[in-house]
Amino acid sequence: MMVFSENETVLAELLSKGRELSDKKGTELSCLVVSKATGDLENRLGQYGVDTILVARDEALNRFDIEVYCSLLSEVVNQRRPEVLLVGATKRGKELAPRLATRLKTGCMADCVALDIDEEKGSLVATRLMYAGKATAREVCKTRPQIATVPPRLFEKKAVGTRRMRMVEVKAPPVQPRVTVKEVRKKEMEAANIEEANVVVCGGRGLRSKEDFKLLEALAKVLNGQVACSRPIAADLGWFTEWVGLSGHKVRPALYIGCGVSGAIQHLAGIRDARIVVAINNNPEAPIFSATDFGIVGDLYQVVPALTESLRKRAST
Amino acid sequence: MVKSIVCIKYAIDVAQLRIDAASKTPITKGAPRKISDIDKNALEEAVRIKEAHGGQVVALTLGPPEAKEALREALAMGADEAYLITDPSLENLDTGGTSTILAAAILKLGNFDLVITGEATIDGFSSQVGPRLAECLSIPQVTYVRKLTFENGKVTAERDLEDSREVVEVNAPVLLTVTKEVNTPRFPSLMAILAASKKEIKTLTAQDLSVQAGMLESTIKILEMTSPEMKRRGLILRDKPPADMAEELALTLSKERIGA
User: Fold this and answer.
1) Which residues sit opposite A137 in a β-bridge?
2) Closest Cα partner for A232 from A197, A257, A267, A265?
3) Confidence tier at B79 by pLDDT (50, 70, 90)
4) Which residue of A48, A118, B16, B37 lies most exposed, with the fewest beta carbons within 10 A?
5) Do B259 and A198 touch (CB under 8 A)?
6) What is the per-residue pLDDT for A204?
C-alpha cells in the first residue's frame, strides 16, 4: 500500500490509516514524499509506522505541476507496484488522482468517507457519498492499483512507533510543465476548525453585509459555537475563505443554526450529520425548511438578536 | 477565433431524487434529470469567449436519447453545434469509460482550442472526468477556474485553491474546469429557445467513434447503494412576533442536550 499527499499533515493522516489497513492485509506500507529537507523525515513520518519512505528531491517538484507530479507518481507506481494507492483529497490531490488513474488504466474512488479491507478478497472497500449525500455507495476497484482519494481530517494521525524503515530516493522524470504560474495570492484563512465545532451558526445570502455577521457571532458566543457561511458568501462575495457544503466543509455539530440560508442541496450535503438542524429564514418556501428539526419563518435581523437574548437569559439563571 | 468544446452532463436532479422507503435506496430509474448546474457556467464561459473573440462553441454530451434536452438548452445559451453520443452499449460507464468516449468524440470533431467542463457534476460530484479527459487528449489541465481570459492562443486563468488564488498561463489546446463562481449563466430569451429548437442535434454511436467494448469496461464495482434514514422533525414556527418565536425556540433548545 502506498500513500501520497503534497500536504504533509494529510500525508500523516493517510499513513495512520494506511498502517491500520496494511496490518489487516499483511502488506507493507510506503509513502511518497517530495521534500528538500531529509534529515527530519525519518522522525516526522517514521512515527506512523511506515516501512518505506520514497523521497523525491528535484527542484522541478518545487511547484506542484499536475503533469510533472502525474509522471512522477506514474513512474513510482510502475516501479513499486502497490496494490493500493491512497491520495489526499486536497484540491491538488483531486485533480491529480483521476489523471493518474487514466494514465495507469485503473479506477479511482474519489472523496471516500470510509475505507476498509474486504476480509475475503483482500480488496479495498471505499464508502462514498452519491447524489449530494442522499445515498451512500460502497465500492471496490477491479483493477490495480486501487486508487482512492481521502479528504483531509477524515482519519486521525496516530503515532504507532517507528519500525525498521527504508528510505529510497526517486528521481522525477524530465517533464516540462506546460502551465506557468504568474502569481500566487495567499488567502487569509479563518483560524478555527469548523469541522470540530459542537455548535455551528451559519450565515447565508440573507445576510446583507459582512458586518452583519456580528449578529451570528453573538448567537454563537452564547452557545459556545462557531460562525460559518454557505458557499456564495465565501466563494462569490469573498467575506470568508471557507464554507460549509458539499464542495467545502462537512460539519457534524450537535446543533446547526442556518440564518438566511436557503438550503440548496449542496449546502444540505454539508450538514447531514448535524444532530439538530435549526433554520431561520423569512421565506416560508425556502428548501431548508424541509430539512430541519426546528425552524422560524421570520426576519433574521429580528429573530437572531431575540434568540441570543433569550438564550443568554436562560444561561445566566 | 476560438473553438471551444463544452462537455455537459444530463445529470440526475438530486433535489428531486426520491428515496424508496422500503428498500432504503434512491429511485434513480426515471428520476428527473437536468443539465448539471456547473455545466451551465462552462457553457456561459465558452459563449462569452466566442462573443469576445469570434469562433465556435460545440456542446457535447454522452447520454440517453433524452439528453437532447440538455443540448437544446446549450444551443439556446449560444452553442453553435450540439452532439449527442448515445448508444445502448454506452450506458452505465464509469468516469474512465466516459472520458474515453468523450475524448474519442472530441478528436473526431477535430482542432479545438479549449475543452471546458464544470468543476464537478451535481449527481456524482467526483471531479474526475475533466482531468481524465485532459490525460486522454494529452493536453494540460487547469482546474478550479474562477476567472478566464483568452488572448492570442494563450489562456490566463485564476484558480481558486484552498489557501490561495493562483494566476496561471497556458497555451491552447488546454482543458479547463470552471467553478460556479466563474460567471452567472444567462437565461436564454424566448427567441433563442425557439431558434435552438430548430437546430439539428447530431448523434454519434459507439461505432462512429470506433471504440472497442473492452476499452470501456467499468473499473469500479458498486457493491451496494443505500439511503440513510433522514428524519427531521420539521417543527416550524411562523406568523408570531419574532421575540415570541425566538423565546419558544430557546425553550425548545434548552431541553435538548447541546453540551460543550
Assistant:
1) A128, B225
2) A267
3) very high
4) B16
5) yes
6) 97
- Range list of β-strands (E), chain A: 2-4, 30-34, 52-56, 84-88, 108-109, 112-117, 124-130, 135-141, 146-150, 166-170, 179-186, 199-203, 226-229, 255-259, 276-281, 294-297
What number of other Cβ atoms are within 10 A of residue B69's Cβ?
15
Q: Kindly report, residue by residue over B144-173, the tens digit of the pLDDT.
A: 999 999 998 999 999 999 989 999 999 999
Cell matching residue B88: 445502448
For residue B218, give the nearest of B82, B43, B101, B87 by alpha carbon: B101
Between helices B129-136 and A91-103, what is the axis angle to 10°? 40
A91 vs A70: CA distance, rounded Å? 14
**List of chain B residues whose C-beta atoms are within 8 Å of the C-beta of residue A224:** 260
Alpha helices by DSSP H, listed for chain B, are: 37-53, 68-77, 95-109, 129-136, 190-198, 242-255
CA dist list (Å): A48 to A1, A134, A139, A154: 14, 35, 27, 16
pLDDT tens, residue by residue, A215-227:
999 999 999 999 9
Residue type at A103 in one-letter notation: R
CATH 3.40.50.1220 for domain A194-316: yes
- Using the predicted structure, report yes or no on whether residue B4 has a pLDDT greater than 60: yes
The grid coordinates listed for B35 are 443539465
- Cβ proximity of B11 and B64 under 8 Å: no
A102/B136 Cβ within 8 A: yes
Would the CATH topology of A2-170 be identical to that of A194-316? yes
Query: What are the residue boundaries of the structural domains of chain B, listed by start?
Result: 2-216
- Residue written as cell 506557468? A180
Any idea what DSSP says for residue A289? G
Record: contact B96-A94, CB cut-off 8 A = no
> In the CATH scheme, what is the code of domain A2-170?
3.40.50.620
The span from the CA of B172 to the CA of B153, in Å, is 6
Regions of chain A where pLDDT drops below 50: none
Say if the ipTM goes beyond 0.85: yes
Q: At what angle do helices A213-222 and A300-316 cross, to 10 degrees?
A: 20
Contact B116, B105 (CB under 8 A): no
Q: SS3 for A261-288, per residue?
A: CCCCHHHHCCCCCCCEEEEEECCCCCHH
Contact of B11 with B123, CB cutoff 8 Å: yes
- H or E element in which residue B118 lies: strand B114-118
What secondary structure letter does DSSP report for A152? T
- For A36-84, the DSSP string reads S--TTHHHHHHTTT-SEEEEE--GGGSS--HHHHHHHHHHHHHHH--SE
Domain ranges within chain A, ordered by starting residue: 2-170, 194-316
- Beta-carbon contacts of residue B249 (< 8 Å; ≥ 6 apart): A278, A294, A296, A307, A310, B237
Residue B55 gets the label, from left (phi > 0), alpha (psi -120 to 50) or beta, of left
Q: How far is CA A50 from CA A35, A43, A90, A144, A315, in A?
A: 16, 11, 21, 21, 49
CB of B56 less than 8 A from some CB of A: no
Write down the CATH number for the domain with range B2-216: 3.40.50.620
Within an 8 Å CB–CB cutoff, is residue B21 touching chain A?
no
Average pLDDT, chain A: 94
Using a CB-CB cut-off of 8 Å, the residues of chain B touching A183 are: 166-167
